[in-house]
Amino acid sequence: MTLDITELKQRVLDGGSLSPEEGYALLTHPDKEALYEAAHELTEHFLGKAFDTCSIINAKSGNCPEDCKWCAQSGHYATGAERYALVSPSACVAQAAYNHKQGIGRFSLVASGRRQTDSEIKQIAISYRAIKRAVPEMKCCASLGLLKEHQLQELFESGVTTYHCNMETAPSYFAQLCTTHTQQDKADTLAAARRVGMRICCGGILGMGETLEQRVELAFYLRSLGSESIPVNILQPIEGTPLGKASPLTPDEILSAIALFRFVNPKAFLRFSGGRAQLSPELQRRAIYVGINSAITGDLLTTIGQQARQDMAMIEECGKENCAQDWEVSYDY
Q1: pTM assigned to the model
Q2: Which end of the chain has the smaller Cβ count within 10 Å, N or C?
Q3: Model confidence at 245, in pLDDT bands (50, 70, 90)?
Q4: Which CB contacts under 8 angstroms, 24+ apart, belong to 186-190?
């Protein structure tokens, strides 16, 4: 399909949307610079200069029973990842306060495992309440697996306003990467989070062997979920996992995918997440220009992230304004 990028951009600016066929044509369009410039204009139009920063603490690590082929924390693979139980509330508060001083607007506890027990949720809720007492301005998020609605309600009451659960990849590909749970399990968790009053943060990982068509499929699936924040992870192959020898994506593959996600999800915060430390500073700045307007900063679970000071400087150099947004996203389908 040959299409006019300018015409398609105007349609999105006017409140219209793409078809999957048009999405694929965008992703594979030979005029990359025109594609990147159009995605930049969409970002500026719908979200201005806002840049949303967040940080995470690995509150429980390793021993996960799930068999996700990309993950170092799966108990199915020998990766050397750390293994420990829930960290103390005092440790969570100290990390949240430190991140707040660095100018980071959000803080999330992330825990390995299919889901947390009710007793673990109670301990985690104590940590969140302590964080909100110590740093009232910090917006709290959580990524704790496939929780039940009563568990999400307890977290919401403790101060958590956003729940994170990635779909990881296209529905047509997910079962080849994970067999111990389904995307429907994830969707049910996100729906429950919304019912208790939370926003959702839901994205995926690029470079796990998916086809171009499946990257388009993921972009539209995330739109169907109405994800207000979309983490864009770039696979960082981890030795010992089945994807440990995966080939890296090219810069144009990464930037074209970001542009596609912006066209399909024009009002969402596209969040640089895992794997970006392997990208050059120039490529990261280019990605921010094209459509990235949020990021996790600091250490990222089992891989090394970016130091907050460096990120804050990069955000400023790119003409963005660091702020913690309360996202509101709605689409007419």
Answers
A1: 0.93
A2: C
A3: very high
A4: 186/146, 187/225, 188/146, 189/145, 189/146, 189/147, 189/152, 189/163, 189/165, 190/163, 190/165, 190/225
